[in-house]
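We examine the record.
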Amino acid sequence: MDTNTIIIIAALMGLAAALYTSVGHAGASGYLAIMALFAVAPATMKPTALVLNIIVASLTTFRFARAEQINWRLLLYFVLGAVPIAFFAGGINLPGNFYRPLVGVILWIAALRLLWPRPLASLETPQPPSIATMILAGAGIGALSGLTGTGGGIFLSPLILFFGWESVRKTSGIAAGFILCVSIAGLAGNLSGVGKLPSELPYFVGAVLFGAIAGTQLGLSRLPANRLLQALGCVLVIAGAKLIFS
């Protein structure tokens, strides 16, 4: 890549990281979309997105944990269901012309509900689900994560919010920890891809870390809950577009 291209990609990744981390996500779908826009080799895209996801999710999880905005019980059971399934699902290839648009439409429907001005009444008194429900939900999301090459936060956050299992900010904290664990599992399932990481990776890492610091600050203390929901809705629109039009 030439210098100008590296700067543009890094800047866009930093902006994506800021938006995604404000709602506890790490930005894999955004990074994939940016790399696709600049015709980065497909073999390079997935491991690069996963490495950036792990780095960003580590920072985001740390900051949400330090602010006591993670429900560790919910996170534990979601992860128990998701990690082994995500590891194996990463090696499955479904027909992309059918599966990815379907998931993209689902994300758009979820985004529409989050962007709708009427509040989610169920979030006033969060009610956690049963252990079996959390493990099964984690397994389903782990399968989707492995198949789509993302950390799973774009599926987990709407699920928690729609059913009123946790408050908005703690949902972001749970998503951050979940993405970290699932991304590590995904990368472990495809270690051969690490050899295809680009030489420009340090520039991308610096950009997403800068964006993540700004985004988590917004998510933890600056944005009110309704703005966080709207930000999550925007993230889902971007992720859905990436799946539908890629």
In short: Residues 123 and 161 are 7 Å apart (CA to CA). The mean pLDDT is 82.
